[in-house]
Write a structure and sequence with these properties.
single chain; alpha+beta; 9-stranded antiparallel sheet; 33 helices; about 10% strand; globular
Length: about 900
């Protein structure tokens, strides 16, 4: 019989083990994302991450961290910290063995945290921003009775929508309370500047102040959202992301006509185009079924990449640079994640490996733009006469092809050819040059007895060769051969003379019917001018128009040629190549485009949900995947960016980086709530999202800061007060024009050249100069100003706008003294001050009344007696100066009838435009 004490001892141990396991469930779990990942990133991953995998040990991915290292021992054994090599190396005394190598040892509590995490099973975790967005519950506020409306409570009385619930949830543990609502004048100015980029008019302020209805503020918000100025304001923000400019960049920086893309943005914002469709059209509008002109223009987003037109550059290098920029910009704008470093190596901190970069790049690698001087492909906008020719061509095809479906397909094909001049082969792709060269490293040229090859072109069903060429040589002829210079002669044709304006001619050359893929060779005979060049810009093999002679040029062929030789307005667009023009994508070894690695096909990183099998593996499928409900980043990033525009700082401050190295969100649940609302409830409506934000009590708070708030939350991360932010460069400019009565309401059209200081623009290559606009174009909103990348509009740059050579995700605000010099001396602000002074003069007889009227005009507030006294003293001393120096008054006012009083008011008005409360949104 068993000893009862032994029996009870065994049972006791079993109970203790069971109890220990049971209590372990309630033990504080170490969180990988918030506690372990930051520790590893700080101390370990520089040597054991995506760039370096010292000793074969990496902490970037779970499978790598748990695998045996170079020594054969696993660094981490889940559930057993004591047996884990990582813990052993962290606790050694020998500096040659102890980790981190050649760096201070981890603190005991940090090692203990890692030990505890491993003992708990070393559970990995996905970074919060890479997890599918789930909608959190809205926090309850106030008391049970106040939520029912039975009793009053400060929290339920203050809150206006769900945003405020999340904000209060963060304030309460800190013992903080939200600030009272801003006064009405401040509020209408704030929301007007935020939603339209313009200050309210005096009439709008008066109407709001007198409207005592409960929805007075809501009516203001709805009016602003419906204003045409709304689209202009948000387009201004997006142009930074799109790196929009009116020039191509790099050293020569010549002009580019892409303003139609800017106009598309204005209309898209004003029409409240759903953000998912807004995304798809910009990334892949050309791949939509039967894309409209507007959808093609939208693809200008990725045609804002720079072109290098400088002689001696290699087009393929800069084509590749543009593709890389598109990959990086797409991630920056829609994914808020640093992806560019993955070009050279796996990401040091986030779960992206080197190969995934090139799989993603493969989505963009088939685009037809190739860094050519002509900026093709472009969408061509024909004159009314040429448009009728295109309609005539379409009608001819409809009459000539019996099968309606085939007729439609052919009409669409030739319409696309006429509107885009694609598909074509650019002449820099020719090879096997004899007595030939790329002229100025741009277009192919050859001289007498010269030749070249066009490699691997499909001739089946393509008996028409379109060619853009020209020469100054008399009687030059070119012979085309199949497969070699001794092969079958396909055609011999004279080369047209180059036009007086230096234009080449698009010519159609009938070819015999040939099947399959072949090399095309061309040889030049130019005995009368053997040193004169024949230049070819591009060639294109095309099917025949219906009803046209096989070996001659028919009437409809001539009609097509007239269209191709026209010089219509154009805008750059995206188009993909297929068949012979499709490209393979390879890894670049160590990021070097000249050293190709293994071939890859389009795909998305494994850290994210996979693309659905029904989606095409092209830009369209990629864009649709990006705006799917399962994608963790797109909605979060968009909500965070719009929040940052209103509040000055994003919920995630690093708008450009939501990855593991970005600053954690201050209100993660609020961000996720708004992201889900944006996608599901608001159906991607930006206007509804912005309305929700500006209707919150959080947004409507006073921005004044108490000593307590400044001590507890100096950067307003907890949102216990309203936003107070220096206006953007565009808003500072537009406000000055608006309050002075100069601002033009004209919308759309080519960029304009308003007044700017002399000597700014230098264009040594093409001799372009700043041709000052006239009429309405002289005083238009800042987003219409001509943007030269190498010499941007000076007052914009001084107020922190970018050069737009690359995507700019947020503007870091400065307060350089140059800003005061702009608002005090720039000719735009001098003219605004002159007009504002004339307004002030009409508003009162005494200087005090005039100054008060000017201050109300620019700030919608009334001056305090102390400030009024200072400005009045400025006026009187300045007036006295101009009485003694009338010539200076005439010079300031640029008019002979200038009075000392008006000149003094101009100086005072100029001072008003420079005040902190004027260039700040309070």
């Amino acid at each position: 019989m068993m000893n009862p004490w032994i029996s009870w001892g065994v049972v006791g141990v079993a109970v203790m083990v069971t109890l220990s396991s049971f209590l372990g469930v309630f033990e504080d779990r170490v969180d990988y994302n918030t506690q372990i990942k930051p520790l590893l990133n700080k101390h370990c991953i520089a040597c054991h991450g995506g760039v370096k995998k010292a000793s074969g040990f990496s902490l970037l991915f779970e499978h790598e961290a748990l695998a045996p290292a170079k020594s054969g021992k696993p660094g981490i054994i889940p559930g057993d910290a004591d047996a884990s090599e990582m813990i052993r190396r962290l606790t050694l005394d020998d500096p040659d063995e102890r980790m981190p190598l050649e760096h201070p040892a981890l603190k005991p509590d940090e090692i203990e945290l890692l030990r505890k995490w491993i003992d708990q099973g070393a559970e990995w975790g996905d970074h919060w921003a890479y997890q599918t967005v789930e909608k959190p519950d809205v926090p309850k506020i106030g008391t049970f009775l106040s939520r029912l409306g039975i009793t009053e409570n400060d929290e339920t009385k203050w809150a206006k929508n769900e945003i405020d619930h999340f904000v209060l949830q963060k304030l309460k543990p800190e013992g903080l309370k939200p600030s009272p609502e801003a006064d009405r004048a401040t509020l209408i100015r704030r929301v007007s500047l935020d939603l339209t980029g313009l200050p309210p008019t005096e009439k709008e302020v008066t109407n709001f102040m007198n409207d005592r209805s409960p929805d007075a503020y809501a009516k203001v918000v709805d009016r602003l959202l419906a204003s045409p100025a709304y689209g202009e304001r948000w387009t201004g923000m997006w142009l930074d992301l799109a790196r929009y400019a009116d020039t191509k960049g790099y050293e020569r920086d010549p002009g580019r006509k892409i303003w139609r893309y800017r106009d598309w943005l204005i209309k898209a914002f004003n029409d409240d185009k759903p953000f998912d469709q807004f995304t798809i059209e910009q990334l892949a509008g050309d791949l939509l079924p039967a894309p409209t002109d507007a959808q093609l223009i939208a693809t200008g987003f990725h045609r804002n990449t720079m072109n290098n037109d400088e002689g001696g550059t290699q087009d393929e290098e800069f084509r590749t640079a543009a593709v890389l920029d598109r990959v990086n910009t797409t991630w920056d704008v829609w994914q808020g994640t640093t992806f560019s470093c993955v070009q050279c190596h796996s990401h040091p901190y986030d779960p992206f490996v080197n190969e995934e970069y090139y799989k993603y790049l493969a989505f963009f690698n088939n685009t037809r733009d190739e860094d050519v001087t002509s900026d093709t492909p472009t969408l061509r906008f024909y004159s009314s006469t040429d448009s009728l020719k295109l309609v005539s061509l379409q009608q001819f095809i409809a009459r000539s092809v019996a099968d309606r479906r085939q007729a439609t397909a052919q009409a669409e094909y030739f319409t696309k050819l006429a509107r885009t001049v694609e598909p074509k082969i650019n002449s820099h792709d020719f090879d096997q040059f004899v007595n030939a060269s790329l002229l100025d490293a741009k277009y192919f040229g050859f001289q007498d007895k010269g030749s070249a090859r066009i490699k691997n072109v499909t001739l089946t069903g393509r008996p028409r060769l379109l060619i853009a060429w020209g020469t100054n040589a008399p009687n030059a002829t070119v012979t085309f051969y199949s497969d070699s210079l001794k092969g079958t002669v396909l055609a011999t044709v004279p080369v047209p003379k180059t036009g007086s304006a230096g234009n080449d001619t698009v010519q159609l050359i009938p070819l015999p019917a040939v099947q399959g893929k072949h090399h095309l060779f061309m040889a030049l005979s130019s005995p009368k001018a053997p040193k004169e060049w024949v230049q070819i810009k591009w060639v294109s093999l095309q099917p025949s128009l219906p009803g046209q002679p096989l070996r001659a040029i028919g009437d409809q062929d001539k009609l097509l040629l007239e269209l191709l030789n026209a010089s219509p307005e154009q805008t750059p667009i995206m188009l993909d190549g297929s068949s012979d023009l499709a490209r393979e994508t390879h890894l670049f070894e160590r990021g070097n485009w000249l050293v190709k690695g293994k071939r890859v096909t389009p795909d998305v990183p494994k850290a994210f949900p996979a693309m659905e099998s029904t989606l095409p593996k092209n830009r369209l499928g990629l864009a649709q995947w990006m705006v799917s409900r399962q994608h963790p980043l797109t909605a979060r990033v968009a909500v965070n960016r719009f929040w940052e525009q209103l509040f000055g700082t994003g919920i995630v401050e690093t708008v450009e980086d939501m990855g593991t190295q970005g600053i954690p969100p201050t209100h993660r649940e609020l961000l996720d709530y708004l992201a889900v609302e944006f996608m599901e409830t608001d159906k991607w409506s930006v206007k509804k999202l912005l309305r929700k934000m500006v209707m919150s009590a959080t947004y409507q708070q006073r921005s004044e800061v108490s000593a307590e708030l400044l001590a507890n939350d100096p950067f307003n991360k907890l949102l216990a007060r309203g936003p107070r932010v220096r206006l953007s460069a565009e808003a500072v400019h537009d406000q000055a024009l608006a309050v002075s009565g100069l601002l033009s309401a004209k919308m759309y059209g080519p960029s304009v050249m308003p007044v700017q200081p002399d000597g700014i623009w230098q264009s040594p290559y093409d001799g372009e100069s700043w041709k000052q606009s006239t009429g309405d174009d002289l005083h238009r909103r800042a987003l219409y100003t001509y943007w030269k990348r190498t010499a941007p509009y000076p007052s914009m740059i001084t107020f922190d706008s970018p050069s737009r050579e690359f995507c700019q995700l947020r503007r870091l605000r400065t307060n350089t003294p140059l800003q005061a010099l702009v608002t005090l001396n720039d000719p735009v602000y001098i003219e605004a001050a002159q007009k504002l002074a004339e307004y002030m003069q009409r508003k009162g007889r005494l200087p005090e009344a005039q100054i008060q009227a000017g201050f109300r005009r620019v700030t919608v507030h009334t001056l305090t007696p102390k400030k009024l006294a200072v400005l009045t003293q400025l006026y009187r001393s300045t007036e006295q100066h101009y009485r003694q120096n009338p010539d200076e008054a005439r010079k300031l006012m640029a008019r002979q009838d200038a009075t000392p009083q008006l000149a003094a008011l101009t100086v005072t008005a100029n001072t008003l435009l420079n005040l902190d409360e004027v260039i700040t949104k309070e």
